[in-house]
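dumping the sequnces here before i forget
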Amino acid sequence: MKIIVFAENQDGNFKKSTFEAISYAAQIAANNNGHVTAVSIGNVGAEKLAELGKYGADHIVSYAQEIFHSFSGEAYSKALSHAAKSLNTNLIIVSNTYSGKTIAPRTAAQLSAGIVSGVISFPDMQNGFKVRRTVFSGKAYADVNVNTSLKVLAITPNSFAILDQPKTAAIEIMDAGIGSENVHTKSIEIARTTGKVVLTEAELVVSAGRGMKGPENWHMIENLADILGAATACSKPVSDMHWRPHSEHVGQTGITIKPNLYIAIGISGAIQHLAGVSSSKVIVAINKDPEAPFFKAADYGIVGDAFEVLPLITEAAKAFKSQQA
Amino acid sequence: MKILVCMSNVPDTTTKVTFAENNTKFNTQGVQFIINPYDELALTRALEITEKQTGTVTVINVGLADTEPNVRKALAIGAHEAVRINAEPLDAYFVAEQIANYAKGENFDVILTGRESIDYNGGMVAGLLGEMLNMPSINVITAIEIENGMAHLERDIDGGREKLDCPLPFVASAQKELTDPRIPNMRGIMAARTKPLKVLEPAGSQANTLTTSFELPAPKGACKLIDVADAGKLIELLHAEAKVI
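..and the predicted 3d for all of it:
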């Protein structure tokens, strides 16, 4: 079985989700006499490219022509298709990040491949090809058969472990012959939130709701998040009232996340909110209402006022971190 | 300006999800269906654009007759015309093919979808459509302005925001901040009754994936409660017991 993995970089560095995807592909390959090619698209140095071998890539391909120095769904998807065709690929793996979600469907359409996104399992190839994905924003799972010979899977970040399985992988420079006539979008400006953990990729998340009473109190949430190295998130009412940016809203109509730890402070736990976070490994609910539905979904709970509880756990977190250092 | 808005018919966000027929089908009994919230934002923004300039907004849905009340609702919100492709929406690829097949002959300037449907969360239709129609596709847009055949857009990227320009025609998927949804008023509801709603039969493509079964997540064990006075102990438990920090 020939597998290619889209190795996504940001400013020349591969992302954690890329290493997850390669580890995932390498495990499928190991069980199916397979071969994994990591496909890097963009301006990435040779030293960084070699990193991909650490996680089980047998072969590394780099499309580094200038056309790829700025992200474009049109050009990137064509490069990925070019790699798939050149390498007689059976399976294409991408991570379900914003960029991955832009490229994966275009590549699938170029190659008439069946596509499944939000994948959280290894394929079951006993009888056909079946994978599990989340549906209803995490309220349920669906098992999906893919019937085409070439398949595209977009796997959910934070769902698979990064494994050290070093290989000596040769690096090959490829050119898909894509010209500027293939790119219509023009990037004007990119603004990234610097110095903060990115919510969609975060392992630890500190989230808060109306129990915080107002945006002026959010420094308490940010402080705890900083100490733990966590991302911050919020409930729908909080983003609707513009206390926090929409990009922090987790839930059924916001983003769905899957961190190792989700701490919910002053959030009651409406069904729509729980849908977005219920796949978290460990959930902590802090709420002054003992009847808050969040306690039914949580592993740990503290019934108490946020303004009383937060300073105590912040102090404890600080002490824990200094002890670790 | 001709804008096409793609809409899904989805269970209301408060739905308690259950399955029927030995966990092979979503149980629709007692479930209220709504226009997918992101598609509703796309529709509203499309109307705002055509109101500022001139133009028409067409909504398209791939679904059986039971989706028609929500297609009518889209007309009541203000869409000028509607198309329903009379087929079960089997998977994203199938749906995109049906929409592309219709859109090919219609010369739309802009095609909008929601960023994902809140039931199957695929988020794939915009990209598939873009490729099938040979147009650029821009995912999760939070702003769009169009002037002189050029769109100025903003979109969410991993850990940030990008401003970009794209000439017409293109496909884009709506993210939450794009605008606020519009509620149909009485005049709109009356007008919707006489607006054109075309029903077309699907073109013969097959789905290439098949959902065979569903499962609900295992229920959580009991929540371990910690006294407020001992709140600091949480950190110790998260480290030593849960092993997440």
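The longest strand of chain B covers residues 137-147.
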